[in-house]
Amino acid sequence: MSEDSENMREPLHETLQVQRGETEASLQPLRLGERVRSLRLGQGLTLEEASKLTGLARSTLSKIENEQISPTFSVVHKLVNGLGIDLPQLFSEPSNSAQPSGRRDITRRGEGKPHPTATYEHELLATDLSHKKMVPFTTRVRARAFGDFPEWIRHDGEEFLYVLSGAILFYTEFYEPVRLEAGDSAYYDCTMGHMLVSVSEEDAEVLWVTA
Amino acid sequence: MSEDSENMREPLHETLQVQRGETEASLQPLRLGERVRSLRLGQGLTLEEASKLTGLARSTLSKIENEQISPTFSVVHKLVNGLGIDLPQLFSEPSNSAQPSGRRDITRRGEGKPHPTATYEHELLATDLSHKKMVPFTTRVRARAFGDFPEWIRHDGEEFLYVLSGAILFYTEFYEPVRLEAGDSAYYDCTMGHMLVSVSEEDAEVLWVTA
DNA sequence: TTCGCGTGTTTCCTATAGGAAATTTACGTT
DNA sequence: AACGTAAATTTCCTATAGGAAACACGCGAA
């Protein structure tokens, strides 16, 4: 990093800002109060009961729900734990986002769209839907040795891997290989070379989701 | 609810507390500062740069990292957006391992970060990574009846569901409920109300990925 | 060594979060 | 209606969060 003058700071500032998306003035309204209220009422709780559960004062809860205050992190933590808030609704943004699009696609076991390769036998799931943010598929790992692959598999995006059965060796470009068994999972950048090899008696089966 | 005296409050308090697991004094330390610092350093940022990115004062960031203050939710929000942190990660317990720079995170079976609710028992996966496009977690479905849910669960984004074991009824707002068994999967818009109920002898276990 | 200068910490002050209690609102009941 | 009760809201006060600026600590260059 070379420095020229004292105003080399601003450009960096701007650059970083842009990279991260809006930070300063923008940042959605974050209807936290609204959500907390609907969550509480959904459980049929009064402020008094919620107060007991969370250890927070009734008044505090009321103010949070009416967006009169911005609760501290410790208070939010008590809220989450006390009311047993479900994860997805916790980190999803406002959700006032209109269009309740109601797509749904069920794929029965073994009914996916087959896509065999030399080393893997993929089965694409939810293929009736297009424009998905994620692409889920199950895979039977036929490869048995590192050498079965001509080269690293690399592509854009991120990938989540969950071992359904059997055991695999998970090779990645920048790490030592790891043995994964049923129930183990991994999350990684696909730009980093990666590949799977079955090491169990039978071919291992894994679930992959890419985004 | 009959009231006798002013001290009938405590017993109820205790009762409710127990039902939900510890809330008050307990609630693990939540080394927020520690995590924020490692996240910031992991990105090679100085307090000054982080300040520009988040719009927060250097001093404020310093105090947060040194656990001298509990930031308000709005401040946490700026932090999350400015530094690209996953919110769920902040509410699950601190992870011992520092952020790897190569972006790969392995989660062993049963080693996720627990997050129990009244109806589900979630286990967050890959919590060492932040800024993920997807959030994967496994869930034990405790709910046994439609009525166990006060209302539809609804939030932004899309969700992929894969049944690991047991059998569930998959209720969605705009479709008839469907029975799903091990190996079956579903992909749907989360803005549409949805919920799961176990219908097998034992609680069903599912894998969820949201994006 | 001393001078800068970038970095993190601390101080000081104002704005505001959070709890206890008073007040108001919303409903049943008689 | 007027009352009783339980809910939520508001008030009042203290504790504390957050920003600006001063301070302290390295560390490299002259």
From TrEMBL, chains A, B:
Residues 1-26, 90-117 are annotated as: Disordered. CDD domains: cupin_XRE_C, HTH_XRE. Residues 36-90 form the HTH cro/C1-type domain. GO terms for molecular function: DNA binding; DNA-binding transcription factor activity. GO terms for cellular component: cytosol. The keyword rRNA processing does not apply. Pfam families: Cupin_2, HTH_3. This is Helix-turn-helix domain-containing protein. Keywords: DNA-binding. Residues 1-13, 102-117 have a biased composition (Basic and acidic residues).
